[in-house]
């Protein structure tokens, strides 16, 4: 963990729809927080590395989100675009404690 990070309670896990997302709006760039079918939670900058499409509006399948603009598939754990595409969406650390989602911000 970066010494400048601090954890912020975002919501309850159940507040994020399964295979869906929740948007955290901020001036430094919005963050999309995703929930998989098996309740894993991931957070990425809400900008596809291809053409800055809103990943929060994409389709979640497994541990991947498909961008709604041009169907790039982004790995939720790493933020990396899946081959043959190349690029990366910034990821943010997430933790779950007692059913609540916490997001690390700097």
Could you explain the architecture of this structure?
The chain has no helices and 10 strands. It has 106 residues and is mainly β. The chain has a single domain (6-105), classed as Rieske Iron-sulfur Protein (3-layer Sandwich). The strands form 3 sheets. It has a 4-stranded antiparallel beta sheet, with no helix packed on it. A 3-stranded antiparallel beta sheet has the order 1-10-9, with no helix packed on it. The chain has a 3-stranded antiparallel beta sheet with strand order 5-6-7, with no helix packed on it. Strand 6 (64-66) and strand 7 (73-75) form a beta hairpin. The chain is globular. The termini are close together. 25% of the residues are buried. The mean pLDDT is 94.
**What is the overall silhouette?**
globular
Task: Work out the strand percent.
Answer: 35-45%
Going by CATH, the architecture would be 3-layer Sandwich
Cα-to-Cα separation, first versus last residue? 10 Å
- The CATH superfamily is known as Rieske [2Fe-2S] iron-sulphur domain
Helix content: under 10%
Under CATH, the topology is which?
Rieske Iron-sulfur Protein
Structural class by SSE content: mainly beta
Given the structure, what is the number of helices? 0
Question: For the CA atoms, what is the radius of gyration?
Answer: 13 Å
- On the 0 to 100 scale, the average pLDDT is 94
Largest sheet descriptor: 4 strands, antiparallel
Low-confidence stretches: none
Q: Largest beta sheet: what is the strand line-up? A: 2-3-4-8
Along the chain, the helix and strand elements come as EEEEEEEEEE
Instruction: Look at the structure and give the CATH class.
Output: Mainly Beta
| β-strand number | 10
Task: Give the total of domains.
Answer: 1
Pfam families: Rieske (PF00355)
Protein name: Nitrite reductase small subunit NirD
GO molecular function, one term: nitrite reductase [NAD(P)H] activity
Keywords: 2Fe-2S, Iron, Iron-sulfur, Metal-binding, Nitrate assimilation, Oxidoreductase
